[in-house]
Structures are given as structure tokens and as C-alpha cells.
């Protein structure tokens, strides 16, 4: 509803500007979430290589469990929801610009 079909070059320009701003935010959110997921994967692989009764294993497990808690936190879940919303918004804006450009 915020982005109906484009009817003028000025509207097209505004959509492109909005797209750029929203894309930056989307990339920030994705980078944060990707960082958490990549670190979890690294820790999981390291845990598989270290003896379970070692101090190193305990330290890795604590960090792993902390990151799992982070992923369950309301803040992380909100970022996840926001990224999904932004993704849909970006696709819609891109489609509106593309449809206008075809005319």
C-alpha cells in the first residue's frame, strides 16, 4: 500500500531512494544474523574436534550456548522479523520500478 504502481519519474526516483535506504538496513541485519550463524557453525565444528572433558571444550560450549540464547532472544527475533519484512518490501519496490520501466 505504501508503494502503489509508479506513475511519474519523480515517484520512480523516490522509490529508488527508498530502496537504497532500506537495502542498507537489510544488509546490516543480514550481516549481524549471518555473523551469529557463522560463529555457531565454527563453534560446533570446534566442539566436534575437542575432548569433552577438556577446559577448552567447556569454554567453547559456553560461547555456543550463549549464542544459542542470543538467537532465541526477543531482540534477535525482532531483527529476524524486520529482515523478512524488509526483504518483501525490497522485492515489491523493485517490481514496481521494473514494471514502470517496462512502460
TrEMBL record:
Residues 1-103 form the OCEL domain. InterPro entries: ELL/occludin, Occludin_ELL. One of its GO terms (cellular component) is transcription elongation factor complex. It comes from Chloropsis cyanopogon. Pfam families: Occludin_ELL (PF07303). One of its GO terms (molecular function) is cis-regulatory region sequence-specific DNA binding. GO terms for biological process: positive regulation of transcription elongation by RNA polymerase II; snRNA transcription by RNA polymerase II. Belongs to the ELL/occludin family. This is OCLN protein.
